[in-house]
Amino acid sequence: MEKDNGIWVWLFIFHSLANFLPLGPMRIAINTRFLIKGRLEGIGWFTWEVARRLALQHPEHTFVFLFDRPFDPSFIPADNVETVVIFPPARHALLWWWWFEIAIPRALKKHKIDLLLSPDGYCSLRAPTPTVMVCHDIAHHHYPAQVPFHGRVFYHYFVPKYLKRAERIISVSTFTKLDIVEHYDISAAKIKVACNGVRKEFQVLSDAQKKAIKAEYSEGQDYYFYLGSLHPRKNVARLIEAFGLFKQQTNAPIKLLIGGRLAWQTGEIKTALEQSAVDKDIKLLGYVDDSSLPDLLGAALALTYPSLFEGFGVPLLEAMHVEVPILTSNLSSLPEVAGKAAVLVDPTDTQAMATALKRIYESPSLREDLIAAGRIQRQKFSWDRATEVVWKSLVDLSALQNG
């Protein structure tokens, strides 16, 4: 009996040390279909920043980037990256299914892939390749009516299956992890929490730079800035209404700039703008390109981000890095990300939102306190930390498969 116990002790020690021993060369595929030049948004930036770091930090392994269309060469960060373009371009429910369930399994087998990292919340049910999947949110579960029909049907059917299929799941916030556990009966032990980061371009502007930006975009006036795609969950219509109340209460010479592409179900936003008594002080900028965004955010009096639901809320972190105050919602992941760097409001209460706009406008000391809190809060989140969590999950999964 003592001899048997000794064997089990050594097996336990060996398994515990496996994560610290050098791994043999692996071929790790990464789903990079969101890497589209000039069109990176939340998932695209996560994919790029993490995939780039993985390749650069681990030259002993080969990383195979899987695209669904021709790609820009700038998305090849290192010599240990191979690229594969897999037909068809996956931008519709039927094509999603085809790409992940028909094309991806063939490609993984053909290119002898050891592990798959899928950063966009999808994975392959048919491919036997061990998989780490990143889930950014389950907004479709909470706001199904705000998702286009074909996407809604696909998500409700496949997302629970994806979450069960993936051997490891990474969420971008603790809120998202708990949300998955609660609604999809997934073990919390299966989910690790990473985060998002920001690009180095998000830096504090000088007073002269701020003045130049305001001269270009807001007739030289201070402005509140909204950043994000425009659809009902982002709550922009109520922001427009709250801004109107704020202007009525203060008559402040301040603008509202709204940066983001029109996504879907934007009728409420257009109606709110048409009915606003201060529409001349509200400007829709459309999609803001990567080069202009840091300056537009950095020159703002505050970021206004009253979203109804977010898995993380990257604009909050970007605002902390350019050192502007934040107004955001008291729902979902936003308090977790904002910490003490934001004024939190009920996003369904336009009067509360207007009062918060007034507080920020009238109190320089409040703005300074929020900025100071942001300098501390932003240290919790970085692309390096996100990459570390992803890499550890890949290593753990490899050890499990080889154990």
Description:
The protein is of the alpha/beta class and 403 residues long. The chain has two domains: 191 residues, Rossmann fold (3-Layer(aba) Sandwich); 174 residues, Rossmann fold (3-Layer(aba) Sandwich). The chain is 46% helix and 15% strand. It has 15 helices and 13 strands. The strands form two sheets. It has a seven-stranded parallel β-sheet, sandwiched between helices. Helix 2 crosses helix 15 and helix 8 crosses helix 13. About 3% of the residues have low confidence.
Domain count: the total is 2
According to CATH, the homologous superfamily of the largest domain is: Glycogen Phosphorylase B
| SSE succession | HEHEEHEEHHEHEHEHEHEHEHEHEHHH
| Strand-pairing-aware structural class | alpha/beta
CATH domain class name of the largest domain: Alpha Beta
Nearest-integer average pLDDT? 93
End-to-end separation in angstroms reads 24 Å
Relative helix content: 40-55%
Q: What's the tally of helices?
A: 15
How large, in whole angstroms, is the Cα Rg?
23 Å
The total strand number stands at 13
Q: Report the CATH architecture of the largest domain.
A: 3-Layer(aba) Sandwich
Structure, briefly:
The protein has 403 residues and is of the alpha/beta class. Helices cover 46% and strands 15% of the residues. It has a 7-stranded parallel β-sheet with strand order 3-2-1-4-5-6-7, with helices on both faces. It has a 6-stranded parallel β-sheet with strand order 10-9-8-11-12-13, sandwiched between helices.
